[in-house]
């Protein structure tokens, strides 16, 4: 996170979105998200993605099954002002204990965006998450520090081809679904990927198992989804390869490796049970 985002949006950003309220930094995330009245402000990571996502979210019809944070245009009609983007505040708070509801909201969101074409920016995006994603799908080598490789080897051995259609998906659901009494879940902070929807759900389950104290029965409850074991394996490769790309060998502490181990064993077990090998 750069210094400007930690210091908050400048006066030019505030004027760019015609905001009258004083910005207040929000807790959570990387500390670079700010709220000003009914508007959320955050620095743009990748301009083509921000513009594509805003156009999709603006066009998306209202749903009884989920809410979204609608983007806010700058006064000049674009989606970005001085390197920042904006969206309307949506009511609710995260609750990582409610992962089944997170998954159901993800299913409905993916159903709603299924017809949008593949965005060209995915070929240009180059960050640790994109590297991890490509490694999970065999588009880049899956190379790790030896300490992590010992944990991840069973994933590579259990990996088999799958034939599932891809579409735009939300690649980070667990902490980005908000719950409010009497309202559908709200989906925020959408990192765009072009993969099978089941993979996006598998990423959510893997995250819940590794970091949010979910129990193995969460993965078992969703084992009816297409190629579920293989999607769990690819979700784990994605997260592990992203960690390596983002932080290198220094990230492989005993605690981090131990967080992955039981989920690796679970995913491999489900995959072998489903394929018989």
Strand content: 5-15%
Q: What is the strand tally? A: 10
Show unreliable segments.
none
- Structural Rg: 19 Å
Structural class of the secondary structure composition? alpha+beta
The SSE string, one letter per element, is: HHEEEHEEEHHHEEEEHHHH
How would you sum up this structure, described in words?
By secondary structure, the protein is of the alpha+beta class. The chain contains 10 helices and 10 strands.
List the helices and strands and how they pair.
Layout lengths: L2 H5 L3 H6 L7 E2 L8 E3 L2 E5 L3 H13 L7 E2 L15 E5 L4 E2 L4 H14 L15 H9 L9 H13 L8 E4 L6 E3 L6 E2 L4 E4 L1 H15 L5 H5 L6 H20 L6 H22 L2
Parallel strand pairs: 4-9
Antiparallel strand pairs: 1-2, 2-3, 3-5, 6-8, 7-10, 8-9
Quick gist of this model?
By secondary structure, this protein is of the alpha+beta class. The protein has 10 helices and 10 strands. It has a 4-stranded antiparallel beta sheet with strand order 1-2-3-5, with no helix packed on it. Strands 4-9-8-6 form a 4-stranded mixed beta sheet, covered by helices on one side. It has a two-stranded antiparallel ribbon with strand order 7-10.
């Amino acid at each position: 996170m750069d210094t400007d985002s930690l210091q908050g949006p400048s006066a030019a950003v505030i004027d760019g979105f015609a905001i009258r309220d004083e910005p207040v930094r929000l807790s959570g995330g990387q500390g670079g998200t700010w709220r000003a009245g009914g508007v959320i402000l955050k620095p743009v990571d990748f301009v083509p993605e921000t513009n594509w996502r805003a156009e999709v979210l603006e066009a998306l019809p209202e749903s009884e099954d989920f809410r979204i944070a609608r983007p806010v245009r700058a006064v000049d009609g674009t989606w970005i002002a001085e390197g920042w983007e904006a969206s309307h505040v949506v009511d609710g708070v995260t609750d990582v204990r409610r992962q089944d509801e997170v998954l159901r909201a993800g299913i409905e969101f993916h159903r709603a965006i299924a017809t949008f074409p593949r965005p060209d920016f995915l070929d240009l995006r180059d960050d640790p998450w994109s590297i991890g994603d490509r490694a999970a799908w065999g588009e880049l080598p899956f190379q790790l520090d030896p300490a992590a490789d010992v944990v991840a080897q069973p994933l590579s051995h259990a990996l088999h081809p799958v034939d599932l259609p891809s579409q735009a998906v939300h690649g980070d659901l667990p902490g980005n679904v908000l719950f409010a009494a009497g309202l559908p879940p709200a989906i925020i902070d959408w990192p765009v990927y072009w993969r099978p929807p089941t993979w996006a759900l598998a990423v959510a389950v893997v995250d819940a198992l590794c970091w949010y104290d979910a129990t193995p029965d969460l993965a078992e409850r969703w084992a009816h989804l297409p190629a579920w074991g293989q999607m769990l394996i690819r979700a784990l490769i994605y997260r592990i390869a992203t960690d390596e790309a983002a932080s290198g060998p220094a990230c492989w502490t005993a605690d981090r490796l131990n967080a992955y181990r039981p989920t690796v064993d679970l995913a491999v077990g489900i995959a072998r049970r489903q394929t018989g090998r």
